[in-house]
Design brief:
This protein is α/β, with parallel strands linked by helices. Helices cover 57% and strands 9% of the residues. It is globular.
Length: 379
């Protein structure tokens, strides 16, 4: 069939209707020539379109082959924009780092949800026990047995203020009573806080109480940051014999260095207690990756749950521990100062209270030293 044959027949019928039989062949001859030219032109255009379509298909095929690489570049560019990276592209190695970071965020979120669920369960159990006036039972970290919670020994004066904090007091009691009950087991302690927490003060309070209770033989306390310890020779710790070593930001200590410290602190060597302080997730990661030394750290003190109410209980205990008195107006000012700190940062809060006490001492110097904190001392 000729191209446009249907159109040709239709035009032929139309011309017959318009012009009649006369001259129809001449007119149709002209029309047929035109249609033939149109058909030829259409064939050329069709071939051209087919050629362009083929070229376009080839280009699309090439683009599709590049899609995985382009997708990676798009992800890298997106990450670069979010992180403020100025280079046009970032390496695949940096993309792997980003994936590790996202995985760490996910793990931390899971840990947080688990901790919160455990806290709610524990609080509900405590409320039920208090209502029924039941004897509180806890798990001994050494034997795994259920034992009565017990009381804080009178000699542990530096730990008394933590008894005012419901979320932390149990951990303190369990640790102290278990260490006294099992003197041949490792006495090392891990103090867990939030990101930005200062928990060195808690470590110091344990060290001083250990000496008061006769758990350690010396009142010497050495403090060091994990990164400093990583570079330090342990010969410097010989003078610490019988005392306590506090490692700050302990999640950053190298495994090899901590193994050295554990050996150095053993009773047959320098016989000191190791107290790790730091952010809860960093320490959790450290012990997950280095489970060979988990048994050396039996006692965990959870400080990360202390909120404003607990901090104010702590403040009252600390002021009393220092031998001072204060009224509600002073504590209101101390409470207001918490807004400028990370939630639960005990180290900063203690420094703030010490500052108020120093102002009180300066004001009372040369007069009646009643050791009474006034609101103007907290300005």
């Amino acid at each position: 069939m000729k191209p446009f044959s249907n159109a040709y027949d239709a035009i032929k019928k139309l011309f017959k209707k318009m012009f009649g039989k006369k001259d129809i062949d001449e007119q149709l001859e002209t029309t047929e020539e035109g249609l033939a030219e149109a058909a030829e032109k259409e064939a050329e255009e069709t071939a051209k379109v087919a050629e362009e379509t083929t070229e376009k298909a080839e280009e699309e095929k090439e683009e599709k082959a590049k899609e995985p690489e382009k997708a990676i570049e798009d992800v890298l560019a997106s990450i670069a924009d979010e992180e403020g990276i100025k280079e046009e592209k970032i390496s695949k190695g940096e993309l792997e780092e980003q994936k590790k970071y996202e995985e760490e965020v996910r793990k931390r979120a899971e840990r947080k949800a688990k901790r919160e669920a455990e806290d709610r369960k524990k609080e509900a159990e405590e409320a039920a026990n208090a209502k029924e006036e039941k004897l509180k039972m806890v798990t001994d970290p050494v034997t795994g047995e259920e034992v009565p919670l017990g009381q804080l020994p009178a000699e542990a004066t530096y730990l008394k203020k933590y008894m005012r904090i419901q979320t932390t007091s149990d951990d303190v009691l369990v640790a102290i009573n278990s260490i006294l009950k099992h003197p041949d087991m490792p006495k090392n302690v891990v103090v867990l806080g939030r990101n930005g927490f200062g928990t060195v003060k808690v470590g110091e309070d344990f060290a001083r109480s250990f000496y008061e209770l006769g758990i350690v033989k010396s009142d010497k306390i050495a403090k060091t940051k994990a990164k400093q310890l990583n570079k330090m020779g342990l010969e410097k710790l010989k003078a610490l014999k019988g005392g306590c070593l506090i490692i700050e930001n302990a999640g950053l200590v190298s495994f090899g260095k901590l193994v050295e410290v554990i050996k150095d602190s053993s009773p047959e060597n320098n016989d000191y207690v190791v107290i790790l302080t730091g952010e809860i997730d960093s320490l959790a990661n450290f012990f997950d990756e280095n489970d060979d030394i988990v048994d050396e750290f039996i006692y965990l003190i959870d400080i990360h749950k202390i909120k404003e109410r607990g901090m104010m209980h702590f403040a009252r205990g600390y002021v009393k521990e220092r031998g001072y008195k204060a009224d509600k107006a002073v504590y209101d000012k101390l409470k207001a100062s918490l807004k400028a700190m990370e939630e639960g940062n005990i180290d900063r809060f203690v420094a703030r209270i010490d500052e108020v006490i120093e102002k009180c001492d300066a004001r009372e110097a040369g007069g009646d030293a009643s050791k009474t904190l006034l609101p103007e001392d907290a300005n």
